[in-house]
């Protein structure tokens, strides 16, 4: 996916934050210098972009580094009575040298290692904006698009904003249609990696036989039919940015072991190729309870504990029905614009109908139901008659509930009752309650959140 991106305008703020920095091409012509570099070497404005660096800094050594291909790190030199550490690094694309960068530190709190890390990140930005061929590098959603007046969901949004600024792996749990992907996109946009790749892999949408090569990539000649030059996997495509592994609960057990190594070691094994270090922030989504899957032997416990560093549990629509009027108005405005309709709203009976339904498909089902009603009315308010399918579904659901009780529903009700009794018996002591129930305390916490037990 090609994008028209002006690298200089995007990277300028980042470069200035590094302090004393100059970047040159292979002919030692100045590509960029920061304000502090110009001040240090008394170079007048406008800065001489395109001119040879040695014309303004006669004793510079960056040109020699480019010619020799040998970088110099942590070298001391004196200038204008100050002793400084200078680092001269090469900017590369694969095996080709694109230019060089020099940066210095005087009384900075940053260590040389931290500065090297910043330059490593800058090199990845250069590579990204020059090559710019990644799939799914952009996000479609941001946190402000979440429509709610529900206090619990507002607290979750505030927590998400804080968690997004860290490097920690995030596990997003929610039923189908609750907006897990919206949260995942928002996490990337709110992080320090927002200008780097955002790559998505749906673990349930790709056949098991192809999932490994999609995730890790492969080298040329790795197997019959392999592309010439090999192929980058999704993890490598996300290097420097964020990888969203959607429906992680669908990943086969044998592949979970390989993913665990990546999450732990920050290194991938390309199929038929060499190990590569990677810098990726992982976000995972699931519509199933992974703690339960661990108990059933369907998900690795070591991987579960690695990816469940930060957990976000998105409440289903049936638990925040106060948001339904807001969501209905939003979808009406959206569909009016998309379909060229002139729907003014819904009558009160429709809202009562919508709020009495349990919405197993959550927000996605609500949007589909509103769009279906649009096909019956081109203007005015939507009436109950426009929601014939919803009324039929509700009638069938009521009949089913009257005649059957599923094993899953019975088990959930029994679990909830047992937890409430254990907490009452132990006077709210969760550790003792978990021992009484003969389950791990983390599983107790998961079930308390699931059943909204305070």
TrEMBL record:
Keyword Transcription regulation recorded: yes
Top-level taxon of the source organism: Bacteria
Keyword annotations: ATP-binding, DNA-binding, Nucleotide-binding, Transcription, Transcription regulation
Gene3D superfamilies for the chain: 1.10.8.60, Homeodomain-like, P-loop containing nucleotide triphosphate hydrolases, PAS domain
A biological process from GO: regulation of DNA-templated transcription
Molecular function via GO: ATP binding; sequence-specific DNA binding
UniProt domain Sigma-54 factor interaction: residue ranges: 146-375
Pfam family, one: HTH_8
Name of the protein in its database record: Arginine utilization regulatory protein RocR
Native species: Anaerotignum propionicum DSM 1682
